[in-house]
């Protein structure tokens, strides 16, 4: 089937099998490999992207379901001049990553969290990130990164 999906601000039109998952469309068809495949069961959140501005786990969305919609991946957050998105910059500043595997999904989930709640508490950030797993960091620096990106006090 043919799908037309706006990805990171540009229109893509591709033929895909009807069972193609959005994560595989992004990685295999478009070459946007920052969206990671971690579990295929919605458990880890490594594949989190924004679909029409809402965070979704792209391992459970068919490319056909995204037909006619907007998808943003972590590659789409970077500005035209290469400047980092405030959440990306905060993750770097606060050392919100170690191995980096979960980082793209964490960043995309964090962008969505801040769109819904621009000034969350540390506890609200922790609760909102429950669907994204990190096996390395213990989350402290990830939460601090979200707090920095929100313009609030980092320590807490």
From TrEMBL:
<keyword id="KW-0001">2Fe-2S</keyword>
<dbReference type="InterPro" id="IPR012675">
    <property type="entry name" value="Beta-grasp_dom_sf"/>
</dbReference>
<dbReference type="InterPro" id="IPR002888">
    <property type="entry name" value="2Fe-2S-bd"/>
</dbReference>
<protein>
    <submittedName>
        <fullName>Carbon-monoxide dehydrogenase small subunit</fullName>
    </submittedName>
</protein>
<dbReference type="GO" id="GO:0016491">
    <property type="term" value="F:oxidoreductase activity"/>
</dbReference>
<feature type="domain" description="2Fe-2S ferredoxin-type">
    <location>
        <begin position="1"/>
        <end position="77"/>
    </location>
</feature>
<dbReference type="InterPro" id="IPR036010">
    <property type="entry name" value="2Fe-2S_ferredoxin-like_sf"/>
</dbReference>
<dbReference type="InterPro" id="IPR001041">
    <property type="entry name" value="2Fe-2S_ferredoxin-type"/>
</dbReference>
<dbReference type="Pfam" id="PF00111">
    <property type="entry name" value="Fer2"/>
</dbReference>
<keyword id="KW-0411">Iron-sulfur</keyword>
<dbReference type="GO" id="GO:0046872">
    <property type="term" value="F:metal ion binding"/>
</dbReference>
<dbReference type="Pfam" id="PF01799">
    <property type="entry name" value="Fer2_2"/>
</dbReference>
<dbReference type="InterPro" id="IPR036884">
    <property type="entry name" value="2Fe-2S-bd_dom_sf"/>
</dbReference>
<dbReference type="InterPro" id="IPR051452">
    <property type="entry name" value="Diverse_Oxidoreductases"/>
</dbReference>
<dbReference type="GO" id="GO:0051537">
    <property type="term" value="F:2 iron, 2 sulfur cluster binding"/>
</dbReference>
<keyword id="KW-0560">Oxidoreductase</keyword>
<keyword id="KW-0408">Iron</keyword>
<keyword id="KW-0479">Metal-binding</keyword>
<comment type="pathway">
    <text>Alkaloid degradation; nicotine degradation.</text>
</comment>
